């Protein structure tokens, strides 16, 4: 059966109390998991600790934190702590972020991201095993490190993946994969890449949970919500890795136009190049029924977990965020999958 997740809306500058209320609302509605990412607002791991203390049943996952900004040893310690605070509920979601965030914002090396991620996952798993760890990689090194707190159950590791090589790496080494910014039609190709990686490791696609973020807004003002989504898409479309992925998903003409306008310094024109079909492909905006039906298409395409990524236009996004979450109550898309 397809499960249902909620990504906390960290694109909006909300008080922490709103995030906690959204997570508790999701728990009461029967959501299976709540995800927390980080950019430059609340850090995902501290928020996970708060969620562990303020919820009792719902699963918790980082979706995702970059491996470059914390050492694998720190990530292992954090995973063990959170898994102990929420037994059986915590999943560690990892990714590689972007050159802007890692290199410009944090001043850290941005090189060989896939190799770094592979090494980090290896070191984290070794540390979480409880054994003394000695590791000598190209990017990470460790001598005689041993965790003094171990999780009560094994911690699953999910990788955020976009391009073909990352999808295959996730299929090879991860327990799960988190997809992002894709239309339902692109899901089968992603699954094929994940399966190819899994087969290299002697596994099958059935061994891997595949989740996907789906931008969703049950909005009273659909036009304003679509404009908000167009600006959000533009911010990603000018990043090389996302531009390539969007082009592969069938939006090459829009990507070329967006980037041409952006390079010319006309930000407003860049946003205007996000076509209606681009918006329709990457978001669910409209009534409860429309959004539920749209998200159900991702289940039919093969996702194991549908992650509602709520967003809202306007100066006070809170009512729309809660309305969007409440649209996915007991009669959610899971019932038709």
Number of domains: 1
Number of H/I helices: 13
How many beta-strand segments? Answer: 12
Name the strands of the widest sheet in spatial order: 1-2-3-5-8-9-10-12
Largest sheet, in brief, is: 8 strands, parallel, barrel
Give unreliable regions as ranges.
Answer: none
Under CATH at level 1, the class stands as Alpha Beta
- So what's the overall shape? globular
The chain-level mean pLDDT equals 95
What does this protein look like?
By secondary structure, this protein is an alpha/beta fold. It has a single domain, classed as Luciferase-like domain (TIM Barrel). Helix content is about 50%, strand content about 20%. It has 13 helices and twelve strands. β1, α1 and β2 form a beta-alpha-beta unit. It starts with a strand and ends in an 11-residue tail after the last helix. The model has no long low-confidence stretch (mean pLDDT about 95).
Layout: helices, strands, pairs:
Layout: E1 3-7, H1 16-29, E2 33-36, H2 44-54, E3 59-62, E4 65-66, H3 72-85, E5 90-95, H4 99-105, H5 113-128, E6 133-136, E7 141-145, E8 156-160, H6 164-173, E9 176-179, H7 187-200, E10 209-218, H8 222-237, H9 240-263, H10 267-272, H11 276-282, E11 283-286, H12 288-301, E12 305-310, H13 318-326
List its traits.
globular, two-stranded antiparallel sheet, 8-stranded parallel barrel, TIM Barrel, 337 residues, single chain, 13 helices, alpha/beta, 18% strand
Short description:
Helix content is 48%, strand content 18%. The chain is of the alpha/beta class and 337 residues long.
